[in-house]
Amino acid sequence: MPVVAVRWRRRLLLCLCVVALLLAMLYIFRDALIARPLGRLVANQLTRHLGGTFSVARVRGRWLSGAVLEDLRTVTAPPTGTLVRLECRRLEVDYSLWRMLRARDVLAGISAINADGVVIDLDLTRARPATTTTSSKLTAVPRPQLPERFRPTLAIIGDVRVQTAAGAVALPAFSLDGDGETAVLTVAHACFPGFGLPDERLELQAERVGDGLDFHTVGAVAGVEIAHAHVGDELTLELLAAGGAAGVRVADGAVALRFDALDLAQLPAWLRRWSLPDAGVVNGRALIGINHRANAQLAVRDFRWREATFTTASFNAVWDGAELRVDAARADGPGIALALSNARLLPTTPWLAGAERVSATVDDLRPWLALRWPNVARVPQAVSLALTVAGAGPRLTCAPLTLGCGDSRVALNGALTLPVAGDTWASATIDAQAQATL
Prior knowledge:
Number of helices: 4
Distance between the termini: 140 Å
Helix content: 10-25%
Radius of gyration: 34 Å
Structural class: mainly beta
Shape: elongated
Order of helices and strands: HHEEEHEEEEEEEEEEEEEEEEHEEEE
C-alpha cells in the first residue's frame, strides 16, 4: 500500500477520534456548555420583552426533537404592565427540527406543548408601560391571527390569579388540553372573592375556525353563559343571562350592541351591586363607530327603579361626538306620562341646548321629590304637575306649567332663553307670568 494512502487514513482516523472525543465531552458537560447558557438566553429574552427580571434553572432535551425548560421564575416583577408573576416548574416542547428548517417557520415544527406548575399573576389595575398611548377615539380593532401551521397538542396545568378594579378572580388548578383543533379549559373551582360569588366550575371549549377561534362555556358561570364567541376577522360575543340575551360585535372599527328581553329583576347578584333599576325587560340596539359617534334605540317595559314605575319606556338618540340628540323619548306609567322630542343635550354646562317639545303629566310628585327631599313625603295631599314646552333654537316656550295641591293651583306661562354652550345658567333669561288660585 502506498505510504501516502496510509498517512491519509491515519489522519482521517485521528480526526474522527478528535470529533468523537469532542462530542463525548460536549455530552458530559452539556449542562455547563449548553443547558445553562440556553436557560440564561431564555431568561434574557423574557426580561427584554416583558420587563422585570426572570431566571431559568436549565434547558435540556433531545435538541433535534424536543427540549425541556425547568424552573422558570420571576425574580423582579415588571415595574409596569399587568404581569406581576410568571412561573413554570416544567415546560416541555416537542418539535421537528427538520420541519422547522424546511418550512422556515419555527411554529410549524412544534407538535406538542406540555407545561406543569404554571403560575400567572395579573393585576389589571397597574399602570401601563410608558410607551403605551391611549386615545379617546375608537379605531379599527386589531385583527388577531393564529398561525396556520401552529397546531400543537396542549397539556397545561397551573394557577391563574387576576386582580381587577371590581375585585379578584382566581382560577386555581386549571387545566388546558387541546389536540391542535379544539381545546378545553377546565377549572373545578373558579373563585370570584372580589365579586362576592361562590366558587363555581368553569369549562370553556374552543375550536379553531380558519385563522380564528370559536368558543363557548358549558353552562352558566356567575349567572352568565357564553353561548358563542368568535375571535378572528371580527369579534362577536353572545351571552345568555337574566332570562334574555346580549350580543356584542366588533368589526370595521365599529361596536354593535344588542339586548333581547333582558329581565333586570333576574340579573346576577354581582351585577346588582351597582345602582341598577329594580325591574324591567329591556330590548335595545346601539352602534358605536369611529370617533365615538353612536346611535341607540332602547325600549323597556314594566320598569321600576325605587319609586319610579313605568309600564313602557322608549329612547332613540344619536351622539355625534359633540352633543346628544334625542330624537324621541317617552315613558308612561300609573299616573305619569313623559315625552321629549328633538332635544339637544350637551356634555357640559348648560347641558340643554334646545328641544322641540317637552311634555309631562304627573298625578303626584311627592314620591319623586322625596328621593331628594325626604320631608316632602309628609305633605298630606298629592302634588300634581302638568307641563308642555315647545322650543325653537335656544328659546323654550312654556304654555303652561301647572302645579296643583288639593284645591290650590299655580300656573306659569312664559319663555326661557337657554345660555350658550359653555356658559352658566346665570346667563339664562326668563320672561314669565304666573297666576295662582289658593
